[in-house]
Amino acid sequence: MNVSTKKYTALCLMAGLAFVSSLASSENTQKANKPNILVILTDDQGYGDLSVTGNPILKTPNMDRLAREGVQFINFHVDSYCSPTRSSLLTGRYSHRVGGWGTINGRNMLRDDETTMANVFHHNGYITGLFGKWHLGTNYPYRPIDRGFDEWLGHGDGGTGCTTDYWGNDRVNDHYIHNGRWEEKPRAGYENDVFFDAAMQFIGNNKSRPFFTYLALYNPHGPCSIPDQEWAKNYQGEKVPGDFFASIVHMDDNLGRLRQFLSKEGLTENTLLIFLTDNGTAEGDKVFNAGMRGKKGSPYDGGHRVPCFLYWPAGGLDMPQTVTQLTAHLDWLPTLVDLCGLKLPGPVTFDGISLKPLLEKKDSSWPNRTIVLGTPKNNTGANPQSPGFGQNCAVMTDKWRLVNDKELYDMTNDPGQLQNVAGEHPDVVSQLHAFYQKYWEDVSAHDKSWRGRPIIGSSNLPEVELCAEDWFTTEGNCPWNQGAVALGSASFGKWPVRFAEAGTYRIELRRWPRELDAPMDGTPAITKTVDAWLNSQPLSNTLYNSTSKALPVTRAQLQIGENVQEVKVVHGDRAAMFTMKVKAGISDVSTTLFDIGGKPLCSAFYVEIRKL
What we know:
- Helices cover 23% and strands 22% of the residues.
- It has 612 residues and is an alpha+beta fold.
- It has two domains: 34-355, Alkaline Phosphatase, subunit A, CATH 3.40.720; 455-611, Sandwich (Jelly Rolls).
- The strands form five sheets. Strands 7-6-5-4-8-1-9-10-2-11 form a ten-stranded mixed sheet, sandwiched between helices. Strands 17, 19, 20, 22, 23, 25 and 26 form a seven-stranded mixed sheet that branches. Strands 13-14-15-16 form a four-stranded antiparallel sheet, with helices on one face.
- Strand 6 and strand 7 form a beta hairpin.
- It is globular, with a radius of gyration of 26 Å.
């Protein structure tokens, strides 16, 4: 090789190294411009269930620290129940609009044409993970892994002890669903620790790329099973169960542990951390409710005003700041799109608005806005067809609350909502009613035409288990928890579904879930208890009824569309087996269990379907 060739080769090598260096620099810049996103959502913890908001009993130093280090929203609102809040948080749209306005009867399923927060981040190159509660659909196409999440670890859709949960889960040494499949072996430890550990493992494994982590905890929602009664000792004798507050304190400990982990991994600076809760308190109002009226499920502020904190050092949001303007959960997705410069995977019309002007303290550009929040109550019972106009709702401005379309409260002078002043301000009532009327006509367009319908016969989920939690109830109450199943609830319902293909399907009707291996005419041998954690009591509360009732099942009926079949059930049968030809498209799966005299007992609580 001559000198000229050597020089040329050296120049090419230097240019190549410079190009590689430029690419690396570009990638680092791109990573720096894409903050990691960590959203922490607790369940049933109200605005007053923290020491930073004034609770005289609780000590929540890590939540307090987060609130005081960054942005604290003190007029922040969500829906008054869990599924509606989750559907709005993840879409930036009203829960009534997107399909997730209820909690059971299939009314919690998020419309499959909606764009989720996970879809948006995934579209922008983020890896996405959910650890904890989903409650927006159990089967395809409603599961987290169908809605933009790469990783998913959870319990039952509605929560621990619901019919979609692994039977006997009590939050200690439980079975978990991982990416759509129940794990064969239980994971050791307390549920809250398991989810924090899994989230930290996910973050640690993916810290070289931007991540979106949604840590949606089941606590302090009951049952508040805790592995050590010492946790609750400081709260015994108070007006709420000691383990409710103890669950919050333990979550606070885990929040501190998580933030220490982020610091150790060098991720604190460029991680945008949001903390909020899903509705008003379920129990804590008996001790302290920050002067608010109402609790979980209420249209008054105690049902939907919740704590919300934001911390992001790289974005300059690591200094104490208080936001007093009216804000809501449906603002977070448009805010994150704005702050992170994200591109949407398709057209979306948000109901929420970006909070960026408030975060940048440009209050002069902030609009005088009106928001409608609240959750219709008739998603249970015999006819959960659609919400009712003016039911369990609040039309809100910074100054006013129009509750249930008839009560008016001046929040400036009466934050406790004790004095209805509708008669004194008919013009305000008329104005807010007109806004609500227009809202209602807009969001309720699909009430009668759309229902959540799991898809049967798809390669994305070859075998589908339908659970009573997702019944469209036709008679009696929806047996959404395992206790109702154990007691043999005399209720009847059907499952709206979609069959992906015409063909022959194998259908198994069950009284008990497969994992119990129990006879349809008998009771299971439940061996797991929470004796060490619930004052030495067996599984006997409404979620875990260990005194199961045997049903004298001798015959089972299945109807899909116009096809009706019946089979005998003999003593010891675990399931009633059917083979049926089914047409493609939408249909309803209806079942009935009969006794020896032909009396209908109930519908099958579990049904498994697979295309042959």
